Amino acid sequence: MTALLSAIGQHVEFFLGLLRTSLFSRFESREFTSQLASIGWRSLPTTLTAGVFTGAIMAVQFHLQLKDFGAEATLGGLNTSGTLREVGPILIAFMLAGKVGAFTSAELGTMKVTDQIQAIRCLGVDPVAFLVVPRFWAVVLSSVLLLAFGLVVSVTGGMIASYFVGGVNPQQYLSMIPRFAAAETVALACVKALVFGVLMGHLCCANGYWTEGGTQGVGRAVRTTAVQSMVAIVLADFSISWFLNGIFTALGK
Amino acid sequence: MSLEGSQKSLLISNILSVAGQTLRSVARGRFARTEVVKQLYEFAWGCLGIVSLCVTFTGIIIILEYSFHMKLILANDSLIPGFAMILLVRELAPAVTALLLTSKMGASIAAELGAMKTTEQLDAYRLLGLNPVDLFVAPRFIASTVATVILSVVALYLAVMGGWLSAVLKLHFSTGEFFQSLFAFTTPSDFLLCAVKAALFGGSIPIISSTYGFRCRFGSEGVGMTTTDAVVANSIWIIVLDFVLTYVFSLFK
To answer: Which of A60, A68, A139 should we substitute to test contact with B (largest number of B Cβ atoms within 10 Å)?
Structure first.
């Protein structure tokens, strides 16, 4: 219990340190841009595949369920709303935790165990400001953008799958979307993307920065990042849905 | 079994060759028996907590998220819990379990074998006339297949309980309504699909991860990169296979 509390404390401290450094130190915009390009661009194919298949899987599943009620016409609406609200953010974020998060923590961890971070400190430069902060913001921004991109792609994937599997034509599919996926669905997806991005950025930077113990330590850091990100994503997903749905109900939606 | 100096373009043939050797090793019974028990403990017991936590929260949230939109489609309100839960049986219980196992166990297999490769321990085993596939891959293959099925079933049970709690407490269904609609929709074939998915996902995790481990390049960056790539490849494969299995299932339904 004490260990858990102190671990949580370390994370909070690291996160506050990140925010403080990004506010008060010079922002390394060149490092940020290059990280954004490498992280974001490299993850595009992964996100594309994950998005298309998530949408397609859900379309096949929902078609199977709606068939019994003869309600295939509403497939577009139900699938889009279901994918945007819940399954899409979770599955695509899982994929990004493995790709973006693990990549960044492997990089930082390798720098740590090969004493490159110490070397930077010896040069009188703050490694957090120079290496960690630009990576953190690059991961946050690219996760948010990639998650949004993945969700848009998943709608397309769902549309394609419904056409070939369920015989629902794309026009009918699209026409059903506004009836089910209103502004609050999109808002929910955006909030989820933002929160997941911050969580992934923090966890991969913290675990990478804390890496110890040589080559095996890097492997361990990558694994810890992936597992912690997934647990954090599921818990955050639950809390966001719970609270935002409460708010929407209170607003009378 | 010589994967040294292999090119990136040979990835798929490497995976297939490791898969073939693993199956042969299992069929001929040449794998390390005690390692199976040890790995089964690692997989099943080591991941029980995280898998139960994540899938239970998914179960709770899925019914909250979907009840609103399903009210628009189904005239009969009392069918909603079963309608939401069937998605958990067919899709989310095996997929989420497998994705979690990928980032925990898949990453650790890749890191372990990658570290062995770069420190030339694998070569040492080969010099002794021992096949690394018999020693490491085949036991993990068996353990992972069995453990993923067990974990999905346990996780499914807990998730249904979570869904029941939120249906009763938050959505004001009665316990009778919940279980009646649950059993009205789910058939034995759905549970069979869940088990088949879990077994295939579970079997592919060690094979893909160890292929990446065998291909690990020398150097401290190697292991981190290998681990990341293994997790990403596994996740993509799981989501693609998931789509194929779901589609095949929908043809017979």
So the answer is: A60
